Amino acid sequence: MSASKFQQQSMLTLRGSLLSLAILTFVSLTYLSLNSLHSSFSSSAQSSPAAISASGKQIIQPLRETEASAGQEESGNAKEDEEAGRSDGDDEITDLYHYPEVFKLNYAAMEENFKVYIYPDGDPKTFYQTPRKLTGKYASEGYFFQNIRESKFRTEDPDQAHLFFIPISCHKMRGKGTSYENMTIIVQNYLDGLIAKYPYWNRTLGADHFFVTCHDVGVRATEGVPFLVKNAIRAVCSPSYDVGFIPHKDVALPQILQPFALPAGGNDAENRTTLGFWAGHRNSRIRVILARVWENDTELDISNNRISRATGHLVYQKRFYKTKFCICPGGSQVNSARITDSIHYGCVPVILSNYYDLPFNDIIDWNKFAVVLKEKDVYQLKQILKDIPHEKFLELNKNVAKVQKHFQWNSPPVKYDAFHMVMYDLWLRRHVIRY
Question: Exostosin GT47 domain: which residues (predicted)?
């Protein structure tokens, strides 16, 4: 036999041996696997509530009585919690809010935890601690001064406080005939005294401090104290972010003229036959343009001056009841009390201001109950309003009534009113960097 044939026979013999070994190994592993599987089925039938019957079908064993009753109790509690959640103001929290559920949770946390320390310094008979009055264009400042003392947010312990209130009233200064220059000096001296006496300002350079002032007087009085304006939270009625207002730090205070002369309106679209209404002084560029362009229009009720009382009792206020859209141009500042007048009387407000950070803008969606325009839109104002579909107007009119509670001051304050909304905005700004 040649050497080549011998090598071929050897290779065939080796291959056959390897194949036989592989077959034997496969059979052995299969037997062991089946045997192991049979053992696991037997053990699980004894120890598990889910067993395998002789026919191979799974049998679910019933829960023990204690497990069943526990499950029923848990299900009942969950149902009760769900029902309690629905009754706990859910009907008040609608899609008018940017994030309804987040707002509800944060609001509850604020009510439970938020604490504010009011510096006790300053004579209430001069410019500190108490409001001058609760009426007129400065009413929002007065109500806040009063409400903060009536609320549960006040703490006498500064170590518990999230924020510190600087209780100086520029409105009271104005009432005593103080000049703007002297106002600035008074504010500066009062703040210097607080910084020298207490350690709290220096912990954050004032980032957890706030002051409240309405209309232009307080803005002009505090502008001369740069580190106060830069560091502290400003709650102001004229939140124009082209002249120093910082939206993520400061708070827009709604300017509300209370008491209202007539009851609230709303959900009354069928009574509103006038397309648009405005009457007032021409004390700003946008008001001058508004009066010049639309004063003689037959569909827009635009008056060059305020309506004289001689024309009848509460004629101005009654116009709000008859109008679909109430025009709210900025005056000496970007804000206008006509916005909250419109909301109270159920008239859809038409915001006509540039750079206006609207009150509670980070909480509620103004586009769902108002028409927000730029000043340049004044020339197309009538067409813009006429182009709004009737269904959209009905929705806006309905939603205006829903937000009225947020633009109303009360004494003592009530849930979701203007005071609580301002406090909520402050609560959102409580997280500060401690240097």
Answer: 111-387
